[in-house]
Amino acid sequence: MWWEELDLTDAPADAPVAFGGALDARTLLGAYRAGLFPFPAADPVLAAFNEARWADGPATLVGGDDPYALAWWSPDPRPVLPVNRLRAGPRRRCTVGQAFDRVLEECRRDRQPVWLTDELTAALRELHRDGRAVSGEVWEDDELVGGAYGIQVGPVLSLDSMFHRRPGAGTAVLADLGARFGAVGGRLLDAQWDSPHIRSLGAELLPRERYLAVLREPDTPPLGTV
Question: Where residue 64 falls among pLDDT bands split at 50, 70, 90?
Answer without folding.
Answer: confident
